[in-house]
Amino acid sequence: MRDPYTVLGVARGTDDAEIKKAYRRLAKELHPDLHQGDAKVEERFKEVSAAYKLLGDKELRAKYDRGEIGPDGQQKAPFHYEYAGGGPRRPGAGPGPGGFSADDIFADIFSQFSGGRRARQPQRGADRQFELTVEFLDAALGGVRRVNLPAGKTLDVRIPAGIEDGKQIRLKGQGEPGPAGPGDALVEVRVRPHPLFKRDGNDVRIELPISLPEAVLGAKVKVPTIGGTVSLTVPKGAQSGQTMRLKGRGIAGGDQYVTLLVKLPDKADQDLEALMQRWQETGGYDPRSGDLYG
Questions:
Q1: Rounded CA gap, 265 and 251, in Å?
Q2: Is residue 145 within 8 Å of residue 137, measured between CB atoms?
Q3: Residue 202, CA distances (Å) to 48, 174, 264 in order
Q4: Burial class (CB in 10 A: 0-12, 13-18, 19+), 200
Q5: What global pTM score does this model have?
Q6: Whose CA is closest to 192, among 144, 135, 259, 247?
Q7: Which residues are CB-contacts of 190 (< 8 A; sequence separation ≥ 6)?
């Protein structure tokens, strides 16, 4: 076999990076894919690969430079050196300590000849996009709604309790067909506003009109919640705009906040006007702020 330095066209003492660069250049020029059927080029390619297997391994290269092994990588008499943990290195056995494997370089070069493209994996079908409008209470408490899919197919969609406006529900395998299986259906949820309830995170807010006597004297009043109607105690002298909390009556363990709105009669009679006049005179009512004083 020829001197591996001569085969790669580099001088002794050339650094590892230049040896690797020389090998890559020659391997590209001589690659069998570019010279199919040319036996001479194929032999030359094998010679270049064998040369790099030796010079690309730092330990093998050092042994060759000291004359301990020949260009074929075999030991020379009288040396009987064995590598730690085993016998002499077999040609093509991979990189030595700190060296580059010619097989690794070959794989890199082959990747370049193939355009750097890997075999394409089968793809799933495309996802489908849908929009579903649900009632406020369905979003708050959860429920089941039917969605119409293409080709007349229908599907019952489970609405998770507490879902927020704009969130998506993923339906596995309900998208477009594909070689690796169908895609998914992505259902975007739109929550229709409620005439009474307003969502604030997991809390619910509501405004509750109460009468003037209920505000002044206190009372038990009925309050709607997302779980049904409950009783609320209005304290004596309640103010318009005062907020009261119903613990645990919101969404997913949140609370409900009730803002009291004192509502006067549509048409005050003479008795009510006289009462308010006396109350104002005694300092019990401030008409500018609407505050009530006991």
A1: 34
A2: no
A3: 71, 31, 32
A4: middle
A5: 0.53
A6: 135
A7: 131, 132, 133, 134, 165, 166
Tell me the backbone φ, ψ of residue 130, rounded to 5 degrees: -135, 160
Nearest in space to 203 (alpha carbons), one of 245, 166, 167: 245
- Residue 15's CB is within 10 A of a number of other CB atoms, namely 9
Q: Using the CB atoms, write b or e for 60-87: b if 16+ within 10 Å.
A: bbebbeeeebebebebeeeeeeeeeeee
CA distance 201 to 251: 8
Q: How far is CA 213 from CA 206, 262, 279, in A?
A: 21, 9, 13
- Signed CA dihedral, 87, 88, 91, 94: sign only: positive
Q: How far apart are CA 237 and CA 104, in angstroms?
A: 86
Q: Is the dihedral of CA 240, 245, 246, 249 positive or negative?
A: positive
Q: Is 131 left (phi over 0), alpha (psi -120 to 50) or beta?
A: beta
pLDDT one-digit tens code per residue, 24-83:
889 888 887 778 778 888 888 889 888 898 898 988 898 888 888 888 888 876 544 444
Q: Which among 179, 122, 181, 185 has a CA at the least distance from the CA of 150?
A: 185
Only one residue has tokens 């049904």, namely 228
**Which residue stretches of the chain have pLDDT < 50?**
79-93, 96-98, 287, 294
